[in-house]
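Worked example

This section walks through a single chain of length 179. The input is the sequence exactly as stored; nothing has been trimmed or padded.
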Amino acid sequence: MDKQHQQPVIFSVRGKAPVIHDSVWLAPNCTVVGEVTLGIESTVWFGAVVRGDVASIEVGSRVNIQDGAVIHGTFGESKTVLEDRVSIGHNAIVHGAKVCKGALIGMGAVVMDNAVVGEGAVVAAGAVVLKGTIIPPRKLFAGVPAKSRGDVKEDLQDHLSQTADRYLEYAGWFRGSDY
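Given that input, the structure is written out below as tokens.
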């Protein structure tokens, strides 16, 4: 079986090109477009799209943007900021929001424009965080629309803090492979 080496789709738009640190790992079928900054040791996984065509996207260090996730914003209204050690779950959408250090956006969750997800907070799988919602640090939000379900338990906080490191380890399994 012939293997064709794929490359991520990376290109400029409106005169703005992605700035990607050398330590970033990009899956061969992810897309990174426009005004995007990807910080140290971050990873963008299979089928994920980071689309900075209409608004900027700032990604800190050791952020993992998992399979099928979409990161975008709204022209003239909202940019997206993912601070250090953030985890964006499979098929999640973060659209013009700020996700603070160590927070987790669960699988299939949606976080809309001008929302702020506090440090160490968790947006549960399938939740919808409405435009402008402010989630306090270390709170769990779930449901449609997402509402507070209490504090993030200490054991979950420990697990979250390790997620960024685990995704860096996973990326190491693929570095240098020919897919």
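What to look for: The chain has a mean pLDDT of 94.
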